[in-house]
């Protein structure tokens, strides 16, 4: 891949006008290629072509769109191995994770939107105040959707940002993270191959403070679908409010994984390890806070430590590797700073795996770490770490567990481990989070809405709720000339 240049995908073609930005391999820090930064002209061209394509596409039926999505599923499935390689090279995540999780899950999610019959364009209603009339509620597309995505799961993110929007009849201009644009570019090309019109999906590359800003400033966009950090989300909301555009925000988290004393401890330990160290902790829903009942905490920590010791650190492209790189250097530095600061303030490193000799030289790696004695006044207690660092707190009873879980400004996800399902359901009902896993973690379904409470965001992605976000509601009121009812109203003003 060294030195290859990736352009911008606009109106069905890859274009190469603009400045180059280097892409760095997370695996060993070498130069892996370049993207062409989309300047304001390029961004505006992308939006114009999306607007033209929308005018033609929005009158298509849901059935027609799903036929094209079914073709897309087949095309991507036939290239799954190539997508997996591309994703791991670009992000530094393990090739096993790309091959067995990210890419197949993304394909299943395209398939879900190509087959779901939950979304209907319209539904009939009655008006209780006017019994002889009826109404139709329509779910019209928004128009040009501007989507902005982060770098942690770029293929899944591209699928989630593009496919439900197309099903609802929209066109899309997607700006992936400048660190990880490859699989989003490939997907846009495959969308063209599947038969969607040119210009319906455009991918523009570049940094947030240039390309991202130009996209949000374009007044022809009708909606912003943003996924990223809470700080950028705040900025997006403020900026987009100037032109009153619909906005969905999928933001950060500091999700608690709660282990009760009646849990299957071995299974809970596996779930906690999976919850925080999958993708080296770079998942918005990562269970970065372990809340464990005091009476079992020693036993649980020892079991977790054993599973961390058993993980094999190494080159992301090696099929034996369990844990690999952080996707970019600034993120590596953020993880280091936050962890060092908490250690300096009194947190204790219960265990940290030495990755040193096992990973390629020059890459971005951070050892899976288990931190105890984390106190509420430490920054790491409530700041998203987005890395492989688990902070441990203990509690004595159910009420205290819920209080600690809800003490965060975030509310994205949570896990509860107990053999008592009534207890789990009772606790889940009091947790302020958009997803609560019970005796499970991280498993995602295309049919289930995901998103955040509190500062983790606004709106939902996936499932019927996720499709509805890409629509605006129109009400058609059918009058009935035979009915005298409206005459009663009209008499307020009109005399024969
Ligand atoms: P980020 O906020 O730095 O960037 C996200 C995207 O926004 C990137 O494409 C970036 O270029 C763009 N951007 C940055 N500044 C911008 C600006 N001024 N105008 C327009 N666009 C701008 O986040 P990141 O570091 O790429 O990703 C990590 C974050 O994403 C974490 O906080 C994580 O929790 C969050 N995330 C959330 C979800 C979710 O579904 N809730 C999923 C994945 C990641």
Q: Strand count, sense and closure of the main sheet? A: 7 strands, mixed
Give the CA-based shape: globular
Name the average pLDDT: 97
Small molecules held by this entry: nicotinamide-adenine-dinucleotide
Q: Structural class, from secondary structure content?
A: alpha/beta
Unreliable residue stretches:
none
Percent helix range: 25-40%
What attributes characterize this protein structure?
496 residues; alpha/beta; Aldehyde Dehydrogenase, Chain A, domain 1; Aldehyde Dehydrogenase, Chain A, domain 2; 2 domains; six-stranded mixed beta sheet; 39% helix; 21% strand; globular; binds nicotinamide-adenine-dinucleotide
Description:
There is one protein chain. The protein has helices spanning 40-57, 62-78, 80-91, 95-115, 154-167, 182-193, 208-217, 230-241, 265-277, 297-310, 329-344, 379-382, 398-405, 421-428, 463-468, 485-490, and strands at 4-6, 8-10, 13-15, 20-24, 31-36, 122-126, 134-141, 144-148, 171-175, 201-203, 223-227, 246-250, 256-259, 289-293, 348-352, 369-372, 389-395, 410-411, 413-417, 435-438, 453-454, 457-458, 471-478. The protein has 496 residues and is an alpha/beta fold. The chain folds into 2 domains: 5-251 and 456-476, Aldehyde Dehydrogenase, Chain A, domain 1 (3-Layer(aba) Sandwich), CATH 3.40.605.10; 256-438, Aldehyde Dehydrogenase, Chain A, domain 2. Strands 15-16-17-14-13-19-20 form a 7-stranded mixed beta sheet, with helices on both faces. Strands 10-9-8-11-12-22 form a 6-stranded mixed beta sheet, sandwiched between helices. It has a 3-stranded mixed beta sheet with strand order 1-5-4, with no helix packed on it. A hairpin with a 6-residue loop joins β4 and β5. α9 crosses α10 (297-310). Bound molecules: nicotinamide-adenine-dinucleotide. Nicotinamide-adenine-dinucleotide binds at residues 148-152, 175, 177, 207-209, 212-213, 216, 227-229, 232, 235, 250-253, 284, 384, 386, 412, 452, 457.
């Amino acid at each position: 891949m060294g030195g290859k240049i990736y352009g911008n995908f606009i109106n069905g073609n890859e274009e190469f006008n603009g400045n180059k930005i280097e892409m760095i391999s997370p695996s060993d820090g070498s130069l892996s290629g370049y993207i062409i930064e989309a300047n304001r002209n390029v961004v505006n061209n992308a939006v114009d072509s999306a607007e033209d394509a929308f005018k033609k596409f929005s009158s298509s039926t849901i059935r027609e769109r799903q036929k094209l999505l079914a073709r897309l599923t087949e095309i991507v499935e036939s290239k799954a191995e190539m997508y997996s390689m591309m994703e791991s090279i670009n992000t530094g995540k393990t090739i096993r994770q790309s091959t067995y999780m990210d890419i197949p899950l993304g394909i299943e999610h395209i398939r879900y939107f190509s087959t779901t019959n939950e979304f209907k364009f319209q539904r009939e209603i009655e008006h209780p105040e006017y019994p002889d009339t009826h109404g139709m509620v329509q779910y019209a597309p928004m128009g040009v959707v501007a989507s902005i995505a982060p770098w942690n799961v770029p293929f899944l993110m591209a699928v989630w940002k593009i496919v439900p929007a197309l099903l609802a009849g929209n066109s899309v201009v997607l700006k992936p993270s400048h660190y990880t644009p490859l699989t989003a570019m490939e997907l846009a090309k495959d969308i063209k191959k599947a038969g969607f019109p040119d210009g319906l999906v455009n991918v523009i590359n570049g940094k947030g403070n240039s390309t991202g800003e130009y996209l949000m400033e374009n007044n022809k966009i009708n909606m912003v679908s943003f996924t990223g950090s809470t700080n950028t989300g705040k900025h997006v909301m403020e900026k987009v409010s100037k032109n009153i555009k619909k906005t969905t925000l999928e933001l950060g988290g500091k999700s608690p994984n709660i282990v009760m004393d009646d849990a299957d401890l071995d299974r809970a330990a596996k779930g906690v390890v999976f919850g925080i160290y999958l993708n080296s902790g770079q998942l918005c829903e990562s269970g970065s806070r372990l809340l464990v009942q005091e009476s079992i905490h020693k036993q649980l920590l020892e079991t977790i430590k054993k599973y961390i010791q058993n993980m094999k650190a190494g080159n992301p492209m090696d099929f034996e590797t369990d844990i690999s790189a952080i996707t970019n250097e600034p993120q590596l530095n953020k993880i280091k700073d936050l962890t060092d600061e908490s250690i300096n303030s009194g947190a204790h490193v219960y265990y940290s795996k030495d990755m040193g000799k096992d990973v390629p030289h020059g890459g971005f790696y951070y050892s899976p770490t288990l931190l105890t004695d984390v106190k509420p006044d430490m920054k790491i207690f409530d700041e998203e770490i987005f890395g492989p660092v688990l902070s441990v707190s203990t509690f004595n009873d159910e009420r205290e567990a819920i209080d600690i879980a809800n003490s965060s400004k975030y509310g994205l996800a949570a896990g509860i481990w107990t053999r008592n399902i009534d207890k789990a359901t009772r606790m889940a009902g009091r947790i302020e989070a958009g997803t609560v896993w019970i005796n499970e973690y991280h498993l995602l379904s295309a049919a289930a809405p995901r998103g955040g409470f509190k500062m983790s965001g606004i709106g939902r992605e996936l499932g019927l709720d996720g499709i509805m976000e890409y629509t605006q509601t129109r009400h058609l009121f059918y009058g009935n000339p035979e009915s005298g009812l409206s005459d009663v109203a009209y008499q307020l003003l009109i005399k024969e």
